[in-house]
Amino acid sequence: xxxxFWIFYLVIFFFLNFFYCLDKQNFCSKEDATTNGCSDxxxxxxxxxxTRYILYDVNPSEGFNLRRDVYLRLAIMVHNFKKSKNHKxxxxxxxxxxxxxxxxxxxxxxxxxxxxxWSLFFDIPSLQKFAxxxxxxxxxxxxxxxxxxxxxxxxxxxxMFESGVFVDxxxxxxxxxxxINNFYGYPNISSKITTCLGFQGHTxxxxxxxxxxxxxxFMFNRAEIFLxxxxxxxxxxxxRRSMRFNKELVKIAKDFRKKNFNSTDKLDxxxxxxxxxxxxxxxxxxxxxxLCVHLRRKDFIQGRPNDVPSLxxxxxxxxxxxxxxxxxxxxxxxxxxxxxxxxxxxxxKSKNNNIKTKRFxxxxxxxxxxxxxxxxxxxxLICSHAAYFVGTHESTFTYRxxxxxxxxxxxxxxxxxxxxxxxxxKSCKKSSVWKIVY
Length: 438
Ligand SMILES: Nc1nc2c(ncn2[C@@H]2O[C@H](COP(=O)(O)OP(=O)(O)O)[C@@H](O)[C@H]2O)c(=O)[nH]1
Ligand SMILES: [Mg+2]
Description:
Rossmann fold; seven-stranded mixed sheet; binds magnesium ion
């Protein structure tokens, strides 16, 4: 009887130990004990490591679609850290920076476009299937603190090359320039330490900061300085695929396609699973019976006069394309004022053709609810589903449409097209091609 009891006791003890150790996240080593408040006077430390947070912000002048790419750089980093055995890395969560009122969001009839949550534009559960990311409101609730431990403002190095070679460099340093740190305009956020970080190279070079520091909350300003760890690789495309839009915006774009072009996923040969992790490589998408042009205007007209065609030249190029493709329907996605859209429509239509031009015009409620950012996404969604797309040279708005079409499985020749700068063939530059990989 006594012997059976001891065997039983030892077996139970063994299993308890085994499961404690198996769950490495909950097991505290001696060095953790000092940094994370584990008690050191027990052999087995039952300890749940504290979640750590990374906040970031981007240069105020950067637009929506570059900011989406900056998000990918950081999301890929925390996605990779999540797999680390080092709990200082695996416990890191990325806090989604509220959208400030961006320069391009110029509608006067929208009440307030400041500090918008990501859920207005994106499907957060879908993002979270790729990386541990949370909205700022959840950060406030979870961390129960608005005090950042360490804030870094990134600065470029003056000398990019060392003996002609681009090398990765990270250096905590005195700021070379004066920076304004406004913490998204929240008056209640503050930081214990603020300093500058000379930074050049891959995002994951931040690793040493997280490994060395015992702090819980970090913030990085000017995050557009980070470079992709692996641009265009498998992780890049997984992160990009997880960037599904808010379902309500998807529905509005769907309804528009159906109503105006009788375009449905079924008829268009588009088969996208609800869950991005189930997507498979394909090139079989046909798309709706319309051509989409993304015609970037406004600041691009002044900033890139050689790449943005006049309305006359754009209409000439588009008419030729419609004729070649044997399409009558054209969807026009543009940031132009209404008058320019009307002019382009008039230039496109003539007695000798049946060209029909369409633009998405939101209702008052849609505009107030989804703001300029949401309306732009609806334009992108409609363009992503067209049988043929032609964009504007070096516009990140165009790039994001091209990526979306790669995910939907369009043949490449229907996607990587762009308008010429003018009627002279010498003004035509080739679109860069970034094909999807799985
Ligand atoms: N609705 C709509 N907005 C656009 C369009 N093109 C540009 N915009 C607006 O202008 C901004 C352009 O900035 P950005 O996203 O940085 O793209 P980029 O400047 O073209 O590289 C977009 O985010 C939109 O707010 C368009 O075709 N439709
Ligand atoms: Mg821009």
